[in-house]
Design a protein that fits this description.
about 375 residues, five-stranded parallel sheet
Length: about 375
Amino acid sequence: MFCNSSIVIKVSALISCLLLLIWYAVDDDVPRSPTTWITSHVDIVPLKANITKSTTEAYTSTTTIIKPVMKVNIDHRPFRRCKLVVCSIGNLGNQIWEYMSLFVVWKRFLNSNYTPYIEERMWTTLKVLFPKLSIMPTWNGICNIYRRRIIPRNNNLSDYERWFTNDRYCQDIFLEEYSSRYDDVIEYGVDEIRKEMKYDEGLVQDCQMVLQGFKTRFGLENETVTFIGLHYRGTDYVNHLNINYGNYNPKIPDYHYYTKAMDYFMKKYQNIIFILLSIDIQWLNTNAQFIESKGKNVIVNPYINDRDHDLVLLSNCNHSIINYGSYGVTGALFNGGETIVYDLKLPLDHRGSTLAMGIAEILENWYLLH
């Protein structure tokens, strides 16, 4: 009877300790300073402690436990690093901009106690294109838990500075879905973003070979050629525009917009090759013939809708003609050239639909055209 009672007491004590540890790890309202943690875990000896023969013998004793050496001026930030997370929502272009948004917010508050994370599924997608990302993955589903602190995609970061500077109560911070903080990205520096998000070298080399093949195809292998990337975002996006911006009666562009934009570049450069990319086959069947007849050197979908190669190809062109959406914007931003943007005549809301228009208001070499 006595033995059974003893076992029950020990098991109950063990369960209580486990529950306490779990509560301590996940509760955002519990202050977790290093002082509290160190003084409550007295069964370890810090690496910097002065261990002598006597302290070693005492530590290995079954009856004596040496308390850790305490420093006076220790870092009083919470022991557990707080998480700064962006969630994996949307297609490839959305996820790239969500990553960039997270990256610049992290850099803005680099001295805070926050560590950035992306969900594993986003990390798996992006690592194919960008194998040297500095932000590491966390578990899928973290965005399904109760999120107490959320930074909306169109709010000024200064309004949330207190969250990063007053982090005694370590509460995780989440960026809103579909974040595309283009103003913060541009302020941080597009060149710095390119250093963080370097394309896979194999993809880049393959695209360079393809571009060289285009020069040979049109008899321009010994000439200086200007490559213009054209991207049309259609398919489900047309319905998306009608649902979210129906009050503004948005009009999608047809070949007239693209041929007008092509005129601009044809007046500036002699040897031009236009590369048109789109997964909207119906739109291509209606419009591609007019675009091909406009310029004598036009290539349509050389990779047959390979999203990774297509994006790298757009990013390696000299200039761009795009309509809307985060995918085409990424290619245009990364190639750093002049970009003509279709003017949807919508209010800016930091979503993919108005992303290109927002950038055109900031960068001098981006122009709106309707």
